[in-house]
Each structure stands twice: as structure tokens, then as C-alpha cells.
Amino acid sequence: MQKYSILHGAKFLLLGIFCCASIHANAETNVVHFRLPHPTALRLFKNDNPKAEWLKSSFDDTTNIVELGNRIVIQIAPGADLKKLTAGRAAILDRTITPNVFILQAPDALTAIREAEFFAKLPQVITSYPVMRKSAALHGPYAARPNDTYYFAQWNLENRTTNGTSGGVDLNVRAAWPFSRGEGITLAVADVGVELSHPELSNRTLAAPHFNFDRQNTNGLPFGRSAAWAHGTEVSGLAAGEVGNMRGMAGVAPKANVASWVIFTTNQFLVSDEKLMDMYQFASNTVAVQNHSWGHVGLTLRNATLLEQIGISNAVVTGRSGRGVILVRSAGNDRLSGANCNDDGYPSDPRVIAVAAIRIDGRIASYSEPGACVLVSAPSSDTGLDGLFTTDLLGADGVDQLYFCPPSDPHCPYEDLPDYVFNSQGFSGTSAAAPQIAGVAALMLSANPLLTYRDVQQILIFSSRQFDFADPDLTTNGAGFRVSHNSGFGVPDAGVAVTLARQWSNRPPATNITFTTTNVAAIPDDGLRLIISGTSLTNNSIRTLPSTGMQPDLPTSILPLVNVGQATNVLAQNLTNKAALIQRGGTNANGAATSFAEKINRAAAAGAAFAVVYNSATSDSGCPGGDQLCNMGATDYVPIPAVFIGYSDGSTLTNLLQLGTNVMAQLKLQTTNYNFNVTNTLICEHVGVRVKTDHPLRGDLRITLVSPRGTRSVLQSFNGDTSAGPVDWTYYSTHHFFESSAGTWTIFFGDESGGSAGNVQSLSLNLEGVPITDVDADGLDDNWEITYLWSLGYGPKDDPESDGYSNSMEQVMRTNPLAMNTPFQLDLSRLDKNFLRLSWPGSDKFNYEIRSGTNVANLNSLTNLAGKFPETEWITPYTNSSPQFFQVRSVPKP
After folding, report:
1. Cβ(797)–Cβ(479) below 8 Å
2. 473-500 per-position pLDDT tens digit
3. Nearest to 297 by CA among 276, 269, 274
4. Exposed, middle or buried, 366 (CB in 10 Å: 0-12/13-18/19+)?
5. Which of 236-240, 596-600, 732-736, 882-886 has the lowest mean pLDDT?
6. Which of these ranges, 195-204, 291-300, 605-614, has the smallest mean pLDDT?
7. How far apart are CA 262 and CA 755, in angstroms?
8. CA dist 613 → 632, 653, 690 (Å)
9. Calpha distance 723→804 (Å, rounded)
């Protein structure tokens, strides 16, 4: 067999066939207790050498091994006397780190453990533990490529180009599978039923707690055989389809158990809320993950009922022995009608993981509902793109009713294709995105069953990546995490998620703090205005309607307005530090009608800071011409704020510009603002805003929340909902995760259309998070900063050791911000029959030189790569040539 060697620095690792020894805790173990500075318990493994320099232990399981040494780290409170504390003890002072942090030397590891336990109980001691060597690993080696026939079509699991390099959006499941495939985890699919005998699902559904909540029996099959009854089967295949059975496809967690919960009646109505309550809390100590690819439809605010809330609460509070069932929800598919998933109480619930849908090119799917409550995204399809490959009802039933083999050919290789959906019939929607995240959650829990539902949410944030950097909504929050109302924190890397899960320390309990005001304030009606100056116009405050994209939440600069006509083609003008005036209508060079988005994008490309589109005199389609104000649909991704005004106002401005008048313009939204000055210091998690108004037209309102760090959450956008309100609704945001709570939080209320006025009646801000001591309000615990960084001078986004993990991340993970989280080591794996994959822990602050050759003393430089966090890979063709050595050198970027 061909063997390859890996060289890094002056050392190299020889890869070949070898077997691994695993460490198992035996019955004769002891629990030892330290302060790190938080109270920490470790399970000490049996050891036959009482004088050993290092002893093995673990954090309550056998997957996170920690070696404890014969030296003790001790931190004492101000005014304490170390000499008095250690007088007569077996550990003596060996090194002074800071005036109150010391290292003591003990004769052996066992003595150090006992001494550290003793010191940890003293009130004068803040921290006490033996020096540690922690287990750490890459999210590799890479799993072998599955033999499933159509795995090549599952770009959502692994997206590769023809030369083996990354093709973009995927879940990177092969990096997770060496450590977890969902073994021992039961995932419930609450849906229309599942094809239990499907070859991809029969092993996964065997002996799982199926239940039909309509008929009150254990039959998990769908009521019908048409396409409408295939939904639950499609969901199940994506979450947990069998891997390695030489047919079909693979699921994200291909060894998890799948329970089919039928929650729709024969006419496809949901069962009663009483039965939904029973469903949420059903088998909650057996079922670890629930997938819900369903929700409310329409634009009105709709919440779960009281009974459903009780069921959800019971699942989260008491399920999984108090760790909480993981609830995964699709964000919803009504984006094109103006819906926002924060208007649906199902996905907006902070106990739930709301999942958006991402296309293969990284852009959010056109139907996927935005919302500040979206946590993460997962791959799916869109109009004009092929759907995902997954399971269908067997044979000609379900969605795929085509036969691909003639009856005369008993050996046709495509005889099983009717059992799956793919290509134009493939699965799509946020319904397809959610079960993939449910599968990732199953992988994480299989790797570490002790994770709470909050741990799972936070690991998903840590492991997620953004793929659409052209998304104008994408921002970096105060803790350094990229987040968008479209995609949440992005698409999780399953390999990173499992690696983090294996070494994750449970987050401390969360605290909820609520601030309420009952000060009634009017919301300015029709407050979105184009303000004109530099002219003698009587009407210098012009009514507008907004685009569906960026908004002037803060007033724009006052800039010269430039007439660019209909902007049907590329603009030649330089519009830097200017505003564009554009007329609706016109066709491009190909005779096609020019959309609002095309016009605004051309203005932005020419440098315009914002755009003003005015109506045409008459209309040939859609919104009437004249002074009618139009909703500029499909402008979600324009990169600048834009508004629509009437024909008369636009013509007046055009005439002024033609006369050479210097027209100055500004976009401004008049708002009513509420400030909450928070002195409590939490590391934020979910933030909720409860709103009560008497506004007669909810759809007119824009409500935003700005944190002390400047991160803006859009809680409600202008939409077509004609009902009153919000009468009493709580909006939630994930965008402030890991920010500091301290400082001024501001909530803005604006009305973006005329004719309906109302007031804010009362308002509450709810902050959920972990309390810390944080005098400088930067979101970093002062004790943690002093212990690890020796000062309060660093910020949450800083990365002192340049390993890609910011201080904010290191704090949550309880790792040392001055030490590399993962050793710089290489892995060489077979990507497939044609390529090898070389990988190592990477940081985007480094470039990497790759060298190779057959003689370790004479290696040739092959290429230089820009680093990618948290892992960098290099793909090279696989050949049967002589053994090779590989070396990777890291070079800081200039």
C-alpha cells in the first residue's frame, strides 16, 4: 500500500495503516473538584502508579480527556497571604506569574490533585487546579467517500469542483463523520408521516417511538400515497438517510434513529393544539432532536397557543434529563409576499433554532423569510435550480412517479430512482433546510450527549460560515460574529460543530432581565421622507415608499441629487458622494423591461449613496403611473437605500436639475425612540422586545433595536399586513449573541406610509445571557481577562495569538486566548479515487507555503495558499508514485 508522510517544521508524521488505542473510564474512578475559576468536576481514571507525573481524567465522559500534572495553578484574592495558605502543605511555591497568580510544585500528580482540591475550598482562593494537558483535534481526518450511488449529487453535504477543490456552500459532513454519525440519538420528524420501509430509512426507524397524534396510535406511516404525503419522507432522508448501503443517498446524521410523528389529519390540517402540546413533550427523554418543517402562513402575527407553549416549555425544561430537547424549525417560505419569520411565533421562539434556506451560489433563496430571529441557514434550492436529492415514497407513489428502466431490463442500474426525488422534482424550501440542521444537532449530541439546548445553539453559531459577502445586510456584531437578517450566522460546518461539541464545556445558566416602560408616545405618521434643500420649493419634505432592502434608519448625508434618466443601461456618470434620481420604466438594449433592482444597482455601481425612483406618467403594467406610490418589489439585495416618489414630485425635481439648480437631497425616517440604560453586565444570548401599540395598520411600521455596541436588529419591516398592531407581540433577535448587555439600548418606531397613525402603549426589553463582572462593559469577564490576558486592555474581537478564535469565542469556550486552540498538525486523507486532501488548522491571518518531495532534506515549494479559518485544505492529484513528504509553513500576512 502506498504510504505518504507529512512534515511540519522539523517533525514529520508517517501515515499508514495503524490502529488506535481508546481510553475508557473504568468503574474505579474518583470525581475531583477544582476552581478554574468556575467550579469544575473531573473524573479521575484509575492509575497503578501513585508517583506518576501526569494522570488522566475527563469532563464527565470519555471523549474529552484531560491530563493533570504535578504542578498547581493558584490564584488568590487581594489581601490573601500565600505563605499562610500553603504552610505545612505538600505543594511549595515554584513560580510567580502575577502578584496573585502562582504555580506550586507537588511531588507527583496525585498529590497535586489532592492539594488543588484543598485550596479550591478556601474562601481566599479564586482559582486552583493542577496544570492541564487537554485533548484537542482537527475536524479530520476526513471520512472516506461514501459508496452511495448518488452521493455525487448531494452538493449540500459536500460541494466539490471537478478538480476536488471546494465548490462553495455545503455542510462539510465528511469532516464530522469520523467522530460522529448520530449514533445513539433519536430524531423525531413531526410531519405527515414517513415511509418506514424505505431502504434508506428502515434501519433508522426500527424501534423508534413513532406516534400518530391524530389517530392516537403508533403508526408512523403517512395517510396517503400522493405527492402531498411525501413531505415527511423527504425530510427524513435529508436528516438521517442510510450511508454506505451502495444505493441512493446519505443523510447528515446517517446513524441517528428517526421517529415519525404524524401531526396532520387526513385532510392535512394540523391536529389540535392539545395534541400538539402532547407532541412537543412526547418521549422527551428518548427523543433528543425534533424537526418541524412547517409553520404559520400569511402576514399576520400568529403565535403558538397556550397549550403549545406549555408543551414546548416542558420539552425544553425537562426533556433530555433537563438539558432540553433540540427544537429545529424552518424559517418559512413567504418572503415574496413580505413575510418575516419574526411575525411567526413558531420560528421566532428563542428556544427554537430557526433555519433559513441558502442556494448553491450562496445567496439566500428567494422565498426564505428574513428575520432577526433566524439563527443559521442550510442548503436548499430555488426557482430555476435543481432541488435536493432525498428519499420519496416507494415506487410510483409520492413526488417522483417516473420509471427509468424498461420492464424488459432486469439489470437496469436506475431501477431504484423512483424511490427518490432529485433535479427538477427535488426537495426545496426551508422545509429542506431545517432537517439538515436537525441532523447536525444529532451529530453534535452523539459526540457529546451532555450538551444543553443552549450549548447546541451556540456551537452552531461558532461553526457557521457566511457565503454571500455581497449581502448588503451582512454585518459584524459587537462580539465579532458575522450575522444577517437573511442567513442568520450562516451555514454550519458539521466538522467544526462536532469538534467543538467534543470539547465543549456547558455554558453556565442564563439569567433573564426585563426592563419595561409604559410611557405612551405617538409614532409619526408617513415618516419616511425625501428632504430637499437648496431650492425655493414649497414642499421640501416629499412622501416616499421604501425599497424592500436597505433603509435610511439613520438620516443619510445631505448630497447633490443627479438625474440619471431611466438607468436602463450602465451609467457613465461618477455619482460618488451623490444621490441618483431615476425614472421608472424603460427597456434595456435587449428590449426587456428594466426592474427597480437593476436601476438602483446601476446607480450604486456608479457610486451613488442612495437612489430616488419616481413614477412614470402612465403605466404599462403593475403599479399605476402618476402620483401613485409603488412598492418596489425584489429590491432586497440592492446595496444602497432607495425610495419611491410620485411622478409630479419627480418631474419637479427633474425640471430643477435641467435648469442647473443645485438640488440637495437627504433620506430621513422620522421615528419615536425609547432608550433603556442597562447597567447589568451579561454576555447576551437572545434579546426580546415586547411591543404594545394601538396602531391601526401594522404593516406601515418599521421597528428596529440598536444595542450599545451599535448592532441593529430589524424587528419588523414595512409589509402588506392590514391588521392592527402589534397589539401585544414579542420580537426576538439573535444578532446580539455574545455582546455585552451594558449600555444604552434604543428601540426606534417609524411609520413608512401615510393615512394611519398610532401610539406605542408600552414597551419591554428582555435580555437573556450569562452574568459576568465587566467594569469596562466590553463583554469580556474581568476575571477572565486578568487571568488569561493580565489586563483589561483587549477587546472581544481581538485575537492575540492569531489562531482565528477571538477573545469573545475563547471566553465562551473557556480556552486560553494566548495559546493556539489546536496544535499545528497535518492530516492527509483520500478525498476520492483521484485526489488527496491535505489539511491543517488554519487562520485567515496567515498564508501557507506547501512544499513536497521524495527526499525530506530537499523539498520543493509547490504553492502558496491564503489561510482559511478554522481549517485550511489543499487538494492534490492522487498518483501511484514513490512515497512523498509534505511540509506546510505558516507565514503571517503583511
Report:
1. yes
2. 999 999 999 999 999 999 999 999 999 9
3. 269
4. middle
5. 882-886
6. 291-300
7. 46
8. 9, 11, 35
9. 47
